[in-house]
Protein 1
Amino acid sequence: MKLMIATAAATLTLAGAAFAESHAGSGDAAAGETEFNKCKSCHMIVADDGTEIVKGGRTGPNLYGIIGRQAGSVEDFRYGDSLVAAGEAGLVWDEETFVAYVQDPRGFLREYLEDDGARSKMSYRLRSGMEDVYAYLVSVGPDSGS
Ligand code: HEC
């Protein structure tokens, strides 16, 4: 009997963790906030109402609400043709695509578009902590519930 209760409790805990994971991914948002220092020379995070979550550069698009959004679709940003083409072909930023892209933007676009001539205006490559940055961007996004 004791064992059954323990098993049930463990199952519940796992279900809760899986639920949180499906929303925020597997990363650590607090670690991702620190990691984002590598991005902010080119990317700001500014909410639709103008609230500056992270002051940053303008070389890249505003990353507010980027998760769940079609690639290459931030208004008024002049993207490279390949990223726009990928978005039009159906690329949406979720954990899998985001993690792959930030490790190697050009390589990712070449693979996604099946085009060895594809180019990226983002040449920066993140080597580690991709999941953490993803979790951070979710946590400061419009659907974070906070
Ligand atoms: C040196 C400047 C630079 C740095 C550093 C940089 N980026 Fe970018 N990023 C860009 C540019 C420019 C683009 C637009 C790419 C294009 O149009 O091909 C971009 C595009 C993106 C996109 C696609 C956005 C969209 O609207 O589809 C994501 C996601 C992204 N960057 C994430 C990151 C993250 C996360 C970091 C930090 C780990 C980072 N970038 C660091 C310049 C940069």
Note: The domain at 27-139 is CATH 1.10.760.10 (Cytochrome Bc1 Complex; Chain D, domain 2).
Protein 2
Amino acid sequence: MPYSKGRRILPVSFGTLLLLPHLVGAAHAAVDPAKSSDEAPKIRVLLKEKVGSLEISGWDVEALMPRSAIQRVRRVGRQAWKWKCLADRVELDGMPGAQSRGPVEIQSPAGTLFLGSILVRESIILHPSKAGCSIVNRLDIERYLDGVLNGEFSSKWSPEAVSAQVIAARSYALYQMREARRRRAIFDVESSIRDQVYLGTQGEEARASQLVARTRGMVLVAGPARAGEPIKAFYHSTCGGHTDAPEDVWGKSQTGVRGGVVCEHCGSSPRFNWQLRLTPRQLDEALASYKNGSVIGLEVLSRFSSGRVNKLKVAFLGKGGVISTRIVPGSQLRMLVGSEKFRSTAFRILRGEGDSWIFEGRGYGHGVGMCQWGAKEMGSAGFQVHEILSRYYPSARLMRAWQ
Ligand SMILES: [Zn+2]
């Protein structure tokens, strides 16, 4: 364990261990959105939306329906419950009176339930709407991370690299929890790449759980100005040599995530270099929302300090031979072509045969925060977890938010 486990030992600033007990109380309250003391908070993960009907089973299952004539239903024995979600209402099939216009929470003392054939931890909340139910899994954030680890990275990587990534994932999740609760949203995170890929219990395995436990409660928080608030610890596959500032990518700064840093460690990534060839038609289709005709010219107008493309000038040949130009952000071009195909905005443009467009680039992902391949290689090279984190989140501090 690279960390001290004492109740009041952390927060820790990178590079220097500081005993700051006077900060612990305030920082602790600020970090934990549920304001619990020593317990890990519960996170609400959106599993599915617009569901018309579903089956839930388990041993000794209980449903709490505060907005129903029957407010509590319990069933012992492995028998599936059928739920229907219709017209702003959720109802238990075959039980008149068990109809709710509000959320229904289903749980089991065993701690697990089956949603169809999928094993789910802790509880399931059904939120009815006109379009059907949103299914939300409410569970301990540490168990959530067990199911994120192999969705976003790999437990086979070195313990130091995985620990750094788990801390980033925990910090990101905690940040999203705070934001969701401020907005009074019905869930905190999605289970897809829109937030973090959550594989559920199918993604769990012993090594992943051990590596999550190794950093239990550890989060990255913003510096002294906003002491104790978790940072939105972005990460991405491969930076290609330099990470980027959130304001350069999304036009908006993020507390605790500063401008880009040099990364010398991701050269072994299979995604370090890439090339994409688009036919004239494919590029025209990608930029069709600009509705100016066929693309006849494409040039990089400006780049950020990281080398990523800021703005492009696109020349279109329209009806009647009219030529017009438009300014297109590099990140917009990437999204319009498809962010999996067009791997990053660190690219240059070439022309190929048949007037095809060739994009040669580096890295994969938005480039903000931690470079996962860089972290992987740093871990293999013997760097410690705090060294990896301080490389990619230089203005953040590390602290233990719960024991
Ligand atoms: Zn990198």
Note: The longest strand covers residues 104-115.
